[in-house]
Amino acid sequence: MDKNKRVQLIVIVGLVLTIIALFLTLYKASFLGENVSDSIYNAYKSQGRTGTVFLFLIAPILATLFVLLKKRIPVIIFGLLQCGLWALLTSTFKDEFKGYKVEFSYGSGFYVGLIGAIVIVVGGIVAVATKAFKEEK
Fold first, then answer.
1. Which DSSP string corresponds to 21-54?
2. Distance CA 93, CA 88 (A)
3. How far apart are CA 36 and CA 42, in angstroms?
4. What is the pLDDT of residues 66-116, one digit of tens each?
5. Assign residue 105 a region: left if phi > 0, alpha if psi is -120 to 50, beta otherwise?
6. Of the candidates 112, 113, 23, 129, which has an alpha carbon nearest to the alpha carbon of residue 75?
7. What CA dihedral angle connects 80, 7, 14 and 79, to 10 degrees?
8. 25: closest CA among 12, 15, 35, 16?
9. pTM: predicted TM-score of the whole model, two decimal places
């Protein structure tokens, strides 16, 4: 497999991991004897805002689009934006439960989504490092 296809495959894997993460358990919390867990998709669906889930897909879809268009730098930028989104989720949940006696842990969806974002960044870095999509002179 040539380096261009390899880079494209890496970024597509990151997108697929992100899509899977939307349906996996994002967090698990125990508060006053009640256990709560939810995925990103179910959380927004229960609020009647299913379309909001696409916010979590914009950066990975754009990164995939740019890698298919053979542009390297935008892939890194959108991968880093996706990493930032997962970091924002981390701070949001920690702040939401601050001051309460809550047992809180991140579920597999959080980690799969974070890995997906990192894989996209790695794909962009590999593209730059291997000079993928550069035309030979």
1. HTTSEEEEEEETTEEEEEEHHHHHHHTT-GGGGG
2. 9
3. 12
4. 999 999 899 999 999 999 988 887 777 666 666 667 777 889 999 999 999
5. beta
6. 129
7. 10
8. 35
9. 0.86
In this predicted model, what pLDDT tens digit does every residue of 15-60 receive, in sequence order? 999 999 999 998 888 877 888 888 888 888 888 888 878 888 999 9
- State the Cα–Cα distance between residues 38 and 29, nearest whole angstrom: 9
Q: Taking the CA atoms of the chain, what radius of gyration do you get in angstroms?
A: 17
Q: Enter the tokens of residue 102.
A: 């809550």
Which residues on neighbouring strands pair with residue 105, listed in sequence order?
Answer: 28
Give CA–CA dist 12/9, Å, rounded. Answer: 5
Q: How far apart are CA 58 and CA 68, in angstroms?
A: 15
| Per-residue tokens: 72 | 């390297």
Q: How far is CA 71 from the centre of its chain?
A: 20
DSSP element (H, E) containing 106: strand 103-106
